[in-house]
Specification:
The chain is an alpha+beta fold. It has a single domain, classed as 2-Layer Sandwich (Zincin-like), CATH 3.30.2010. Helices cover 46% and strands 14% of the residues. It has a three-stranded mixed sheet. Helix 1 packs parallel to helix 2. The C terminus is likely disordered.
Length: 100
C-alpha cells in the first residue's frame, strides 16, 4: 500500500466507515479473518487485539466487501476510498466472488 501505517490513517479509515453508515467496533473474539460483518445492522467488528498495522490492513481488506454509497462520502474521504481501491486491485474480484 502507498499509505503509512499511522494513527491518522486508522482514523481516516474509521471515518470512511462512519460516513458510509457503518458502526465500527473493536471487540475480542475468534475471528479467522480479523473481522466480522453484521450486514443487516451495518456493523463491522474488528479484533481488538490487533495492533495499528493489523487494524489498518483488516479495514482495508474489509472495505471492498461493504456496500458503500460514494455519494454519501465527503471529498477527502472519497479520495481516500479511491486510493484504497486503486491500491487493492483484488477488491473487485473479491466482490464478484461474494456476489456469486
Amino acid at each position: 500500500m502507498s499509505f503509512k501505517y499511522t494513527v491518522n490513517t486508522l482514523k481516516k479509515l474509521e471515518q470512511l466507515l462512519e460516513e458510509a453508515g457503518y458502526t465500527l467496533r473493536y471487540e475480542k473474539g475468534n475471528f479467522n479473518s480479523g473481522f466480522c460483518i453484521l450486514e443487516d445492522r451495518k456493523i463491522a467488528i474488528i479484533n481488538k487485539f490487533l495492533n495499528i498495522e493489523g487494524r489498518i490492513n483488516t479495514i482495508v481488506d474489509l472495505v471492498p466487501l461493504l456496500s458503500i454509497n460514494e455519494e454519501e462520502l465527503s471529498g477527502e474521504i472519497l479520495k481516500f476510498l479511491k486510493q484504497i481501491q486503486q491500491n487493492n486491485p483484488d477488491s473487485t474480484s473479491i466482490q464478484t466472488q461474494i456476489d456469486l
